[in-house]
């Protein structure tokens, strides 16, 4: 008689991990919270804190925006996050503010609420709490530090909030008119003290594991291969809310100290897997300023504050934005595992990492630990382009990154990464071959345009038709030619 296999997960429920966060002057400890309970559901359904609204439940609209803060070097670091796709446990050891927590007990409005009232920025009750929280995060990061808010900063801070009644102008006006009110400053001292007491607590057991060190992370991965590894959960959160998947055990890598760093070396920079997208793009743009406007096209501010570069690469979506850029830059990924009682690692060039649609060389016990990006060599020219229906908070139809070296009018080296045109992010090796060694002129461009249009066989979907995608590839290559030869004097990104 065959033996019935019983899943250990079904036979013995995993012990619940504790969840503690600071809210309204006290440490909350809501008890038995499942690992895949979203922060929004915890707030609205379990704690009945209904000021935070649910719009899309997909990280797109910003209605559910809350602000979380972590204690770093004795100060609080504030982030606006989408609570609908954030596992509640991800804010363990942090402080939380919702739209109900800003006004004082006597009803005096917070400066961000006051600005919204004064500028007639409050339209409907769904989006306004989200806008107010994005403004509160902006206020804490800038105005409370003595800085002013210009329209670029305001735009960036509000890039994850949608308003369907088109009330953006007064909301932008409210953002740009924010003024500090010392009487309403957050008293950080008691919060930092309370959070610091929790910071050292490492969660290496239970249903939500949150290791603090790289070796603990690798061991957790080896011991719990069935657990869902997450970083910012900006992809994984959607599997819960849109895919209705249950995640009975989660390993969260965002607190791993070694992976929270960007390390700079003479020939490369190494971006840890827990570094959020905003910081990762800023680190890349420090060497290559053209990456700054490209990075600003990635999702919206809250997603860039939570999501990671490592998560983008590991998730391996064919329309992921960072991979075409990283492929063009010759980036490698460092994969690590715990085997035979020690940490082992290997370097894999990103253009060889993907093996098929959302498949990669990452083994079940491996973690993508670092993305390693070469520093620019003298004479490098880089163009990075994203074509999508909206300027921000939208996924690419096509993405193209072109790295060129031209000496004496002749192309000596070329690397091209493309997204949205194949089953994986891809390197355009045939197009590179059509360029290398040739004079960088209109005739070579025409050959390369033909090559890139033949190199890929894109699909038609809701974002673009196959024909449009193929044409856009050729047109983006033309743009790279115009820009790299100084013929294009106006860059669309600069206008935006
Ligand atoms: C509203 C919205 C807009 C978006 N816009 C864009 C966009 O413009 N461009 C774009 O490219 N993407 C976009 N995304 C997708 C998403 O934000 C990115 O893919 C993000 O980089 C994922 O990172 P994360 O840390 O959130 O990954 P998670 O969601 O935590 O993880 C995603 C997957 O990667 C795996 N993973 C994560 N880190 C590691 C690691 N270190 N090692 C091994 N595996 C790992 C996880 O196991 C999981 O399978 C958007 C998402 C949302 C919700
Ligand atoms: S409900 Fe729309 S972003 Fe969360
Ligand atoms: S504020 Fe809600 S639709 Fe405009």
What does this structure look like?
The chain is α+β, with helices and mostly antiparallel strands. Among the domains are: 21-193, Ubiquitin-like (UB roll) (Roll); 381-495, Enolase-like, domain 1. The chain is 32% helix and 20% strand. Helix 3 packs across helix 6, helix 15 runs antiparallel to helix 16 (442-455) and helix 16 (442-455) packs antiparallel against helix 17. The longest helix has 19 residues, at 466-484. It is globular, with a radius of gyration of 24 Å. The N and C termini lie far apart (69 Å). Residues 1-9 have low confidence and may be disordered. Bound molecules: flavin-adenine dinucleotide (FAD) and FE2/S2 (inorganic) cluster (2 copies). One FE2/S2 (inorganic) cluster is lined by residues 54-57, 59-64, 82, 84. One FE2/S2 (inorganic) cluster (FES) is lined by residues 123-124, 126-128, 163-165, 167.
Query: How is the quaternary structure best described?
Result: single chain
C-alpha Rg (nearest Å): 24 Å
CATH superfamily of the domain at 21-193: Beta-grasp domain
- Bound molecule kinds, no repeats: flavin-adenine dinucleotide, FE2/S2 (inorganic) cluster
CATH topology of the domain at 21-193, which one?
Ubiquitin-like (UB roll)
Count of separate DSSP helical elements: 18
What is the architecture of the domain at 21-193 at the second tier of CATH? Answer: Roll
Distance between the termini: 69 Å
Number of E-type strands: 19
Q: What is the CATH class name of the domain at 21-193?
A: Alpha Beta
Low-pLDDT parts are 1-9
Helix percentage range: 25-40%
Largest sheet: 5 strands, antiparallel
Summing up helix and strand content along with how strands pair, one would put the structural category as: alpha+beta
């Amino acid at each position: 008689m065959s033996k019935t296999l019983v899943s250990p997960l079904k036979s013995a429920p995993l012990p619940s991990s504790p969840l503690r966060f600071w809210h309204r002057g006290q440490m909350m400890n809501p008890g038995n919270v499942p690992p895949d309970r979203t922060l929004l559901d915890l707030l609205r359904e379990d704690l009945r804190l209904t000021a935070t609204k649910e719009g899309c439940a997909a990280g797109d609209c910003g209605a559910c925006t809350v602000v979380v803060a972590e204690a770093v070097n004795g100060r609080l670091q504030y982030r606006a996050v989408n609570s609908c796709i954030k596992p509640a446990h991800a804010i363990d050891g942090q402080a939380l503010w919702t739209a109900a927590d800003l006004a004082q007990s006597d009803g005096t409005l917070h400066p961000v609420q006051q600005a919204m009232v004064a500028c007639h920025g409050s339209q409907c009750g769904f989006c306004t709490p989200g806008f107010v929280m994005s403004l509160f995060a902006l206020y804490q990061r800038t105005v409370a530090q003595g800085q002013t808010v210009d329209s670029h900063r305001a735009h960036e801070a509000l890039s994850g909030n949608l308003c369907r009644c088109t009330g953006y102008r007064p909301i932008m006006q409210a953002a740009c008119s924010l003024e500090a009110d010392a009487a309403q400053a957050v008293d950080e001292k008691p919060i930092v003290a309370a959070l610091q007491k929790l910071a050292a607590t490492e969660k290496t057991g239970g249903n939500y594991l949150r290791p603090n060190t790289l070796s603990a992370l690798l061991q957790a991965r080896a011991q719990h291969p069935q657990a869902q590894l997450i970083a910012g959960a900006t992809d994984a959160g959607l599997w819960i809310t849109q895919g209705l998947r249950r995640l009975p055990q989660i390993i969260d890598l965002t607190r791993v100290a070694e992976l929270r760093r960007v390390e700079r070396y003479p020939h490369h920079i190494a971006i840890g897997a827990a570094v959020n997208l905003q910081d990762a793009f800023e680190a890349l743009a420090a060497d290559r300023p053209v990456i700054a406007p490209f990075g600003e096209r990635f999702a919206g501010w809250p997603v860039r504050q939570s999501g990671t570069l490592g998560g983008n690469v590991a998730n391996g979506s064919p329309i992921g934005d960072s991979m075409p850029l990283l492929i063009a830059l010759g980036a490698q990924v460092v994969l690590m595992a715990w085997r035979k009682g020690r940490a082992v690692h290997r370097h894999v060039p990103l253009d060889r990492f993907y093996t098929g649609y959302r498949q990669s060389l990452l083994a079940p016990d491996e973690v993508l630990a670092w993305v390693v990006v070469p520093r620019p060599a003298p004479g490098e020219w880089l163009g990075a382009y994203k074509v999508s229906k909206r300027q921000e908070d939208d996924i690419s139809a096509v993405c193209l990154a072109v790295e060129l070296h031209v000496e004496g009018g002749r192309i000596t080296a070329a690397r091209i990464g493309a997204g949205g045109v194949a089953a994986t992010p891809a390197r355009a090796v045939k197009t590179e071959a059509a360029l290398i060694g040739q004079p960088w002129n209109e005739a070579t461009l025409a050959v390369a345009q033909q090559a890139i249009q033949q190199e890929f066989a894109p699909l038609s979907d809701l974002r673009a038709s196959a024909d449009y995608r193929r044409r856009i590839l050729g047109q983006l290559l033309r743009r790279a030619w115009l820009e790299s030869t100084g013929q294009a004097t106006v860059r669309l990104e600069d206008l935006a």
